[in-house]
Design goal:
Structural class: alpha+beta
Number of domains: 2
Number of helices: 12
Radius of gyration: 21 Å
CATH architecture of the largest domain: Sandwich
Shape: globular
CATH class of the largest domain: Mainly Beta
Order of helices and strands: HEHEEEEEEEEEEHEEHHEHHHHHHH
Strand content: 15-25%
CATH topology of the largest domain: Jelly Rolls
Length: 324
């Protein structure tokens, strides 16, 4: 472990640990904390360990997989500060790619889908930061949000504020499940960490509508809600427009402006993500059955789209899945 990064004895001492060699248990554990995601274990075995302090809106996690593992996550609705304590974590998202080595830190903006490639030695501390906390700290005007540059930082810059925050955990009474009612001292410690992020990392204030998740038209939300409610059904743009209460042209232009993709592309990607999760996490041995369940009737196009999105064919995903 990098000596410049705070030893997490306080966190380790106070919190219960979820530890498992079962990938599905590991995935479900983090689903509840962050968001539903796909997990693929590339190594021979998994030695997942997760400790959580739930502070209401915010949370602190200490996480490792103990194996080479790939996480495919949807856009988050919060900021996520990641401090790598040991090993290496590859991070890929639209528009950037980086490697978070021991001694580095990185903050993920909301509305960013990403992949993380953990090596066997990788361990991170993760601080979940709601939009409202950061907005209040910066004092942004209504209709604006903070967007950080996708740059790495030296983790040693966080050593002092993270130490202070962990020291203040004694002011928190855990109920045994990792939940805690934070004291004023803990909130002050969180603010110290946020101040370091704001001082160290380039950021800008942008119009909320430009982030892709704030101030979007109501019909975009309606369309996306319908797509997520029916992830195994291929819905035409005309049908989606009717369900959203607008014309087909309005829906298409809205998706291009606020999401940067067409409605059919969003629908396809949601179904591809569902197919990958099925191939990775469920006891499936038939690619054709998975494709059909996810709304793909043309197997050739399914395989091509899958390979373009994930860098491998569905059959390759199935073959590399650890045997149960």
């Amino acid at each position: 472990m990098n000596p410049a990064i705070p030893q997490l004895d306080a966190l380790s001492r106070r919190l219960p640990m979820t530890r498992t060699g079962d990938a599905q248990v590991a995935r479900r554990c983090l689903d509840r904390v962050f968001a539903r995601h796909a997990l693929e274990v590339h190594g021979e075995s998994l030695d997942f360990a997760h400790q959580l302090l739930n502070l209401g809106e915010t949370s602190i996690s200490l996480l490792r997989y103990g194996s080479e593992a790939e996480v495919v996550a949807p856009p988050l609705d919060f900021y996520l500060l990641q401090i790598t304590l040991s090993g290496r974590v590859g991070l890929r998202a639209e528009g950037f790619e980086t490697v978070l080595e021991a001694g580095s830190a990185f903050i993920m903006n909301p509305n960013t889908a990403y992949r993380k490639l953990w090596d066997r030695e990788a361990q991170q501390i993760l601080l979940k930061i709601p939009r409202s906390r950061l907005a209040a700290r910066v004092g942004v005007a209504p209709g604006q949000v903070v967007e950080f540059a996708p740059d790495r930082l030296l983790a040693e810059r966080f050593a002092t504020p993270v130490h202070r925050l962990l020291d203040r955990l004694d002011d928190c009474s855990s109920d045994g499940s990792g939940r805690c009612k934070p004291s004023a001292a803990i909130r002050a410690g969180e603010n110290d960490v946020l101040d370091v992020v704001l001082a160290a990392l380039p950021h800008r204030l942008i119009a909320a509508k430009d982030t892709g998740s704030h101030a979007v038209p109501y019909y975009i939300w309606r369309a996306e809600r319908h797509l997520r409610a029916s992830p195994g059904v291929a819905v035409t743009t005309a049908t989606l427009a009717r369900l959203s209460g607008v014309s087909k042209r309005t829906l298409q232009e809205g998706f291009q402006r606020f999401r940067g993709r067409t409605p059919s592309q969003v629908s396809r990607d949601l179904r591809l993500d569902r197919a990958r999760a099925a191939l990775l996490e469920e006891a499936r041995e038939n690619v054709t059955a998975v494709a059909l369940e996810c709304g793909f009737s043309h197997l050739g196009r399914f395989a091509q789209s899958y390979a373009e999105r994930f860098g491998e064919t569905p059959s390759q995903t199935l073959r590399r899945r650890p045997s149960s």
